[in-house]
Design a protein that fits this description.
The protein has 126 residues and is mainly alpha-helical. Helix 1 packs antiparallel against helix 3 and helix 4 (88-98) runs antiparallel to helix 5. The two termini are 15 Å apart. The chain has helices at residues 3-29, 47-53, 61-83, 88-98, 105-119. The chain crosses the membrane at residues 65-84, 91-119.
Length: 126
């Protein structure tokens, strides 16, 4: 597997794992993972303001399930890209675009994955 393909797979695993864990935690305990100290202790990230502006309550069950579903989607994309399946490129593109709202770390990872998909030889997978 090429280096860029490994990088894309690793980024998908990081994004997917965190979103899945955060979503499951939010569903089971009622709250997302938040900083335990500092200026932002107990506060959700900037993504919460974006989804609120879109009319979605960040603490709603629908939003928590969105985290779980996107987390699973990212992990599925990681497997697909790792195996160079024919469907992985387009699904990775859709999942990365669908996760751009997840400021800041999720947006950065999504943009990097999008660049890897569009500008590198990974494009030939799909």
């Amino acid at each position: 597997m090429a280096v860029l393909q490994w990088i894309a797979v690793a980024l998908c695993v990081v994004q997917g794992s965190y979103m899945l864990i955060d979503g499951i935690r939010a569903l089971t305990t009622g709250s997302y993972i938040t900083p335990s100290s500092g200026d932002h202790a107990g506060q959700l990230g900037p993504w919460a303001r974006i989804v609120e502006r879109a009319g979605i309550a960040p603490e709603s069950a629908a939003m928590k399930w969105t985290f779980v579903i996107l987390g699973l989607a990212w992990l599925t994309v990681a497997v697909g890209l790792g195996l160079a399946t024919t469907w992985s490129w387009i699904v990775a593109l859709v999942v990365a675009i669908a996760s751009l709202w997840y400021l800041i770390p999720g947006t950065v990872i999504s943009v990097i994955v999008l660049v890897l998909l569009v500008v590198t030889p990974l494009r030939s997978i799909g």
